[in-house]
Amino acid sequence: MRLIKNSVQAEELVKRSEQDILQKIQDFFVFEIDKNVIGCVALHDMRPELPAAEMACLYVSNGHENQGVGRKLMRYVEDRAREMGMKQLFALSTRAFNYFQQKGGYVEGAAEMLPVERREKYALSGRNSKVLYKAL
Ligand SMILES: CC(C)(COP(=O)(O)OP(=O)(O)OC[C@H]1O[C@@H](n2cnc3c(N)ncnc32)[C@H](O)[C@@H]1OP(=O)(O)O)[C@@H](O)C(=O)NCCC(=O)NCCS
User: Fold this and answer.
1) Distance in Å, CA 28 to ligand 1 centroid
2) Residue 93 · residue 132 · CB < 8 Å
3) I need a surface site. Which of 59, 66, 80, 94 has the fewest CB within 10 A?
């Protein structure tokens, strides 16, 4: 929560309570350097509605940007999703859609592609994020 605080304030990342994170703690992965957490990412399973997952909460701390950590975190969850038998990965983003397209190989999709529950949450968020996806 400390790591993503500034990014949430800047509305780059969705606000998450401690409870939100704890409920899905098994979905979160962190990147450490010398035991300091400098990056994170989450992988949310969309089964059984879709054989897909959502990559979320990708963040790399300011001092460690542009060193490939974001790409490593993206690749890590992508490999995991593939191992889990997922056919697609989604990413919803307001600010980083260029990054996901250019560095992650995602393409623009539409909210209609999301499972119903996620689509409702998306509509309620009011964030006007772009929906991106990648076939695995
Ligand atoms: C976006 C973010 C995860 C990138 O992490 P990173 O570790 O710096 O990324 P990498 O080192 O893997 O990649 C750096 C490259 O991406 C480019 N890049 C960074 N942010 C970008 C953006 N928003 N749009 C397009 N390109 C971007 C850099 O210019 C650099 O390009 P180069 O390799 O051609 O020089 C990080 O900047 C971040 O945490 N941002 C704030 C949170 C956020 O917006 N998260 C996504 C929410 S969905």
Assistant:
1) 19
2) yes
3) 66
Q: What is the mean pLDDT of the chain?
A: 95
Q: Per residue in 89-104, pLDDT tens?
A: 999 998 899 999 999 9
**Of 99, 100, 133, best ligand 1 pocket probe by most atoms within 8 Å of the beta carbon:** 99
Residue nearest to atom 18 of ligand 1 (CA): 99
Q: What is the C-alpha separation between 49 and 67, in angstroms, rounded?
A: 36
d(CA 75, CA 37): 18
Nearest CA to ligand 1 atom 29: 66
- 97/106 Cα distance (integer angstroms): 9
pLDDT at residue 128, as a whole number: 84
Q: Which pLDDT belongs to residue 95? A: 87
| Listed residue (18, 30, 13) closest to 77, CA to CA | 30
Range(s) of the domain holding residue 118: 5-135
Round to whole Å and give the CA distance between 20 and 1. 11
Q: What is the pTM of this model?
A: 0.95
Structural domain count, the chain:
1
